[in-house]
């Protein structure tokens, strides 16, 4: 039995040496060290040995098992090292190569337009104010000379939450809140950007939610010529120094007199084309002198103070400035569209 165990050891070590893969090595392990292997079979015959021989053969069997198992582990470690070295050689990294560029995003086109307009008016001495998007009927309408039942309310189909609360239809309530808080104690020179909401059918030029920027300047001796000068500076800054403006009479309940401002068409330079509908002019915003009633409700003496207000839509500004043909592009989050204006 001793000779048999020694022969099995030499045979197993020879098979381990011949194995070329870990899978083949596993086959050798099962064949010689498994429950049905020859070493186990030899040990089953130990019952025939004398009591003196059993411990000698048992010790030898354990030594044979350990020698085979150790040889297998060493061969397995050698195979794994060789495989790793081969992989490292095949997958070498040239650390001197330039790295992959990181994709950098940019501001949304509307954000860029709003910030550009803010920078312009801050430079003209205006401050930026914000207010709630869920507004009271009083500040959204009544404080702006639009009492309940006034037909001009129909111009702004509204999202009402309760009889007294609604999603604001313009940012003018921020102007009313600001003047009401000051109560005529000092002049006001502000712009108020933000989202507004109207019950409208979405199409290429309309949206139920859009952005608005309104401006207000109230002080002593504020005149229509001051309004025209500010709007002319705005138009030239946003659309080029060669732009001309014109003011047409209009109607807004919170301004008197009221005007619509047009700019000369940039495409045809005022000659007339499909963009300006052959007129040479494109409507850009509404404005006017603050209505005396609005000043009075806000605590200003209309005999001493006067002011002007204007309102514009950044979406319309962006569409005209960059040739965007559908307002819905701003809100559908199509990265292909947004990427075009990262450097705008």
Characterize the structure shown:
A seven-stranded mixed beta sheet has the order 1-5-6-10-9-8-7, with helices on both faces. It has a three-stranded antiparallel beta sheet with strand order 2-4-3. Strand 7 and strand 8 form a beta hairpin. The chain is elongated. It has 344 residues and is α+β, with helices and mostly antiparallel strands. Helix content is 41%, strand content 19%. It contains eleven helices and ten strands. The model has no long low-confidence stretch (mean pLDDT 88).
| Strands side by side in the biggest sheet | 1-5-6-10-9-8-7
Low-confidence stretches: none
Q: How much of the residues is beta strand, in percent?
A: 15-25%
Main sheet record: 7 strands, mixed
Q: Give the class from helix and strand content and strand pairing.
A: alpha+beta
Helix content: 40-55%
Q: Tell me the number of helical segments per DSSP (H or I, 4 or more residues long).
A: 11
Average pLDDT metric: 88
Count the strands? 10
Rg (CA only): 42 Å
Tell me, what's the shape?
elongated
Quick synopsis:
The chain is built from 11 helices and 10 strands. By secondary structure, the chain is α+β, with helices and mostly antiparallel strands.
